[in-house]
Design a protein that fits this description.
heterodimer, A: about 525 residues, mainly alpha, 2 domains, about 0% strand, B: about 120 residues, about 65% helix
């Protein structure tokens, strides 16, 4: 009996315990609360990275809650797949590790960023609930539990977005996000109901094994795709993204970026694993591709005209989500055809999955650096900012790295994943690659604008007394910078050791099913 | 035909909820629309698990019963109701805060964030 067997359950139990105990620990004062937040974040990240290591070495892990086997067998020999299971394959573990690193950075950053405010024990409780919901969505093997974790993550994020509840804008953004996300959660629940009504099971592997296309399945698929795309902030359902990202405290925005990746994970899990080739090779893939192209282009054109730093970056996240949708849509398009999959589909998926990792890191870092500017200078308005590179050299340095990565400048990691996406989308339809390239140029343009107006230029009188942010905030940003630098220096290693197993796991539907069901029902 | 009547009710409630969310301008009415959506999802789950003439799915001292309704959807529904309660409470408290800040419940006047 090896304790590492229980890693999948620990990945949920540790942040959940952290959430509820932080209310108790908070009674002991500020230092105790901060120490608790650091310990729980580090423990969660360590668990997720160990989980990734173990899954990469030993294949898919299946963990059954409170029982020995995934099915419930009656004495008469009838058996039902009704146990609560956690199933971690390489893609799940990859996502969990990526988002737990973002959560760690956000937690470090929030320690000092939030210290002017009260009710911080509630802040850390909600923060860890959000982490629990996010990790739960990524490692569960059960459709209904996916809905439950989706709601845990949503409810926690409503609270965090509206944390500064004396600001009308924050409450307004939270309400907007709440309406959108509750409606989409109900869509998910109804889709789960449809699938349950057809197959008497909510276990993803069991449903995927039995699934054959009919009206009920088509309705469920449409509901799932629409609602999860809405939650991940793709155009045309993107209107909540800029508001929520801009109004949430910066450490939380860094985590929200990772949470939107969890919805994206759900979307791909549904398309590739639950439906697989039965999803068809025209309508659903092209819907995802077109959503991707629209998100890329509309997101970036809206970003260019923004004057508020975090809002500008939030529109960029819409456009970056577009790249990921585009790449994995191309993968879905070639799922049926082994030749196309070998020619361009698999490379596109590697690009998309690598982009998920890159995007979470550099976008988290950008939001944190915007938060640092807000903390020190007291404003996020680009018309008022200027000359901050003199006062905040470290923040400026890290901002430049993140901005170069998001714009896809050659040595940086963003360039690698974008290059893979350009090459493969060109093979499908050249215009897609053109749209992706134009988006990249516009991204560069708008980050040059931010860098030039906020950090360069003459020193301003109003910012004479501005100093660099405290060390713990710099540490939070340094975590993400370090990951970006490592990814930049070793793209080949990352692609072959982390990204490729994840992409393989995503297209290997029968592997996912047999990991749970083994010999069959 | 009568066996399908509950599903029709689910559909009608769902569309009513969606209509309310999309067209109403009062925040409280939007909250009501969301509650209607939740109710229709819960009703759908319950209806899916019902078997005509079925009894309570408890084996202990059940006596002589032929069919039982499915227990899983009921467990799912209970969970969904609890989640719905949390969401509704939070939704209404946000409406309250919005009213305090803006002095109105009209969505056309609560739009400081745009562009």
């Amino acid at each position: 009996m090896n304790w590492q067997m229980h890693l999948p359950a620990l990945a949920l139990a540790v942040p959940l315990l952290g959430a509820f105990l932080s209310l108790v620990v908070g009674l002991g004062g500020r230092y105790l609360r901060n120490a608790w937040m650091v310990c729980v974040s580090i423990a969660t990240t360590a668990i997720c990275i160990m989980l990734l290591q173990r899954v990469l070495a030993g294949g898919t892990m299946v963990y059954v809650m409170g029982a020995e086997s995934w099915n419930f067998t009656l004495p008469s020999g009838l058996s039902w797949p009704i146990r609560i299971i956690i199933q971690v394959d390489a893609f799940s573990a990859f996502m969990a590790a990526t988002s737990s690193i973002a959560a760690l950075a956000g937690a470090f950053f929030s320690l000092r960023f939030m210290d002017k405010f009260t009710g911080l024990e509630k802040f850390s409780a909600l923060y860890f609930l959000l982490v629990t919901g996010m990790l739960g969505m990524q490692i569960t093997g059960d459709l209904f539990n996916f809905f439950v974790f989706l709601e845990i993550a949503s409810v926690a994020s409503f609270g965090l977005i509206a944390f500064w509840r004396d600001r009308p804008e924050a409450v307004e953004a939270s309400f907007k996000y709440m309406v959108v996300s509750t409606v989409s959660a109900m869509f998910v629940l109804i889709a789960v109901g449809f699938l349950y009504g057809r197959y008497n099971a909510v276990n993803i592997a069991a449903v995927a094994r039995m699934l054959h296309m009919g009206y009920a399945e088509k309705i469920a698929l449409v509901f799932l795709v629409v609602s999860l795309a809405m939650k991940s902030g793709a155009v045309p359902m993107h209107m909540w993204t800029p508001d929520a990202y801009a109004e949430a405290p910066a450490g939380v925005t860094c985590l929200l970026v990772a949470v939107s990746q969890a919805s994206l994970y759900g979307l791909f899990r549904v398309c590739f694993t639950l439906y697989g080739v039965t999803a068809g090779s025209v309508v659903i893939p092209w819907t995802i591709i077109i959503m991707g192209v629209l998100s890329m282009f509309i997101g970036v054109t809206m970003a260019v005209i923004q004057k508020e730093m975090k809002r500008l970056m939030a529109y960029h996240s819409v456009s970056q989500i577009g790249y990921i949708l585009l790449a994995l849509g191309v993968g879905l398009l070639s799922l049926k055809d082994p030749q196309a999959m070998a020619d361009y589909g698999f490379t596109a998926m590697k690009g998309g999955i690598f982009h998920i990792l890159n995007y979470t890191m550099y976008k988290g870092l950008l939001f944190l650096s915007a938060g640092a500017v807000f903390y020190s200078a007291g404003t996020r308005d680009l018309n008022e900012l200027g000359g901050l590179a003199r006062n905040m050299p470290q923040t400026t340095f890290m901002f430049v790295i993140a901005a170069a990565a998001i714009a896809g400048l050659p040595p940086f990691n963003g360039f690698v994943s974008k290059l893979l996406i350009y090459q493969t989308t060109f093979a499908v339809y050249p215009l897609l690659a053109v749209a992706a390239l134009v988006t990249s140029v516009l991204t560069l343009a708008s980050f040059v604008k931010v860098f030039q107006t906020a950090f360069l230029g003459p020193a301003r009188k109003t910012f004479e007394k501005v100093v660099e942010v405290p060390a713990s905030m710099l540490l939070g940003m340094a975590v993400l910078t370090l990951v970006i630098v490592v990814l930049t220096l070793f793209p080949g290693w990352t692609l072959s050791h982390l990204v490729e197993p994840a992409a393989k796991a995503l297209i290997d539907q029968s592997g996912y099913i047999s990991a749970v069901m083994g010999g069959g029902l | 035909m009568t066996g399908n009547a509950p599903f029709l009710v689910v559909g009608v409630i769902f569309l009513l909820g969606l209509y309310a969310i999309l067209t109403e301008r009062n925040l409280i009415k939007i909250a009501i629309g969301i509650s209607l959506l939740e109710a229709s999802a819960n009703l759908l789950l319950i209806v899916l698990g019902y078997r005509t003439g079925g009894s309570v799915p408890i084996f202990t001292l059940a006596g002589d019963v032929g069919t039982m309704v499915l227990p899983t959807p009921q467990a799912l529904t209970l969970t969904a109701i609890v989640i719905g309660l949390a969401t509704s409470a939070l939704l209404l408290s946000l409406v309250m805060l919005l009213y305090r800040h803006y002095g109105t419940l009209d969505v056309r006047e609560i739009r400081r964030l745009r562009g």
